[in-house]
Automatic annotation (TrEMBL):
Keyword Hydrolase: yes
InterPro entries: AAA+_ATPase (IPR003593), ATPase_AAA_core (IPR003959), P-loop_NTPase (IPR027417), Peptidase_M41 (IPR000642), Peptidase_M41-like (IPR037219)
Protein name per the record: Cell division protease FtsH
Pfam families: AAA, Peptidase_M41
GO annotation (BP), single: cell division
Domain AAA+ ATPase, chain residue ranges per copy: 37-165
Species of origin: Eubacterium uniforme
Top-rank taxon: Bacteria
Amino acid sequence: MSEFDKIIGYDDVKIDLFRYCDILKNPEKYMELGVGMPRGILLEGIPGIGKSLMAEAFAKESGRKVVVVRKDKSDGAFLDEIREAFARARKSPYSIVFLDDMDKFANEDECHCDAEEYVTVQACIDECRDDIVFVLATVNDKYCLPDSLIRSGRFDKIIRMRKPKNEEARRIIEHYLSQKKCVGKINMDEITKIFSGLSCAELETIVNEATIYAGFDEREKIEQDDLIKAYLRLIHNAPEFINPIVEKNMERVAVHEAGHALVSEILTADSVSLISVFCSESGEKGVVVIDQNEDFDYSANAQRNDVIRKLAGKAATEIYYGDADVGCRADIKIATSILENMIGQNCTSGFSGYDFGMPSEYSRGNMERMVVSELERCYSDAKKIIVENIEVLYELVCELMYNKTLTYRELRKIFSKK
C-alpha cells in the first residue's frame, strides 16, 4: 500500500506527488530520458486541510532521509537552525528538507516579504544546487513569500490544495464517523451538502463534538441532530440555548434569512442546504448555508445574482413588515463590493466606470453612480422575486419560528410548492 493510499481524497494532488516521488525513487530512469532532477515542491492552502499530512506521506513514500524545519525558536536561533538543517541534508545524498508552514517563518505580510528568514532559505537552496537535496514546503499563503524564493528552479511545482467537496467531503466525514463506536441513522447526502467546503480539521472537530453531545446525554448513538448542532455551534457560533428575553425578536431574523433562502432557491434550484435562526445576549442571528458542491461561477450574471441574494434579506423585511431592515449593513457592504469590482475593474456596465488606479473625482463619482443604480436594480429584482413567491416566504418564516433550523429535506418540501 502506498503512503498516499492512507489519505482520503485529494486524488489529483496525490497523482502529482506520486509522480515526483517516482522521480526521487528512480532517478536513473528519468535521467536516461534527459529529465532534469526537480528541486522542490510547495504545497499551498488554508490551515486544516492536511498539507503537512500530505507532505509527510510524500517524504515516507520517497524513502529518503527527511530533515524537518518548523519555527519554534527566536529569530536569531531559528536562522541558525535553517542553515544547520540544509547542512545536514547535504551530508546525506538524496535527502529532503521539509519546511513546514514556511510562510510563518517571519512575521511579514505580502508587502514586506523579503525577511531575513526567507533570504536565508533562498541562499541555502542555492548552495545545494550541486548537491542532491530536495526541498518540500507547506504554506498557508504563498503571497507572503518573495517571488524570487518560490520561482521555478527553487520550487519546480506549486500545488494548490483546497477544501474537500462533493464525494471527497463525504468520504472524509464517513472516515471520522467510522472511528466512533456507535452511529445512528444519518442521511449522508444531506450532511455532505451542509458540510461540503469545510476543512478536514473542521469536519473532524464537528464529528467529535457531536459524539460529546451523545455521551453527555447518555445516549448510545450519534444522531444527525448532533452533527447539525455541532456544525452550527462550531462554525456559526450558535449558542446552546435561546434567551427568552430576545426571542421575541426572532421573527425579524427569520424573515431576513427566509428572504435570502427564497431568492437563492429561485435563482439557483436546490442551492440552499440549511437555514437556522438563533438568539443570544449579543443579539439575534441567522445563517443560510448555500450548497458548496459546485465550482464557483465567475460569470457576470452569476455575480449579479449573488448581489440579488445579498439584498434579499432587506427586501423580505421591507415587504413583510412595511419598514426598513436595519440589520443588513454587512449584506449591503458585500453587495457593493461585488458591484464595484464588476463595474470598476471588469467593466460589466461599460468602460465609463473603469477604475484607473488613481481615478479622478469625476470618474470616481461616475462609478459610484453606476454602482448605486445597479444596487437599486438588483434590490428591485429581489423584491419582485419575493412578491411573486410570497406564500413560500410565509411558510419558511412559520417553519423557522417553530423549528429554528430547517435542513435540505425539509426545505425541499417547502420549495417544491413554489
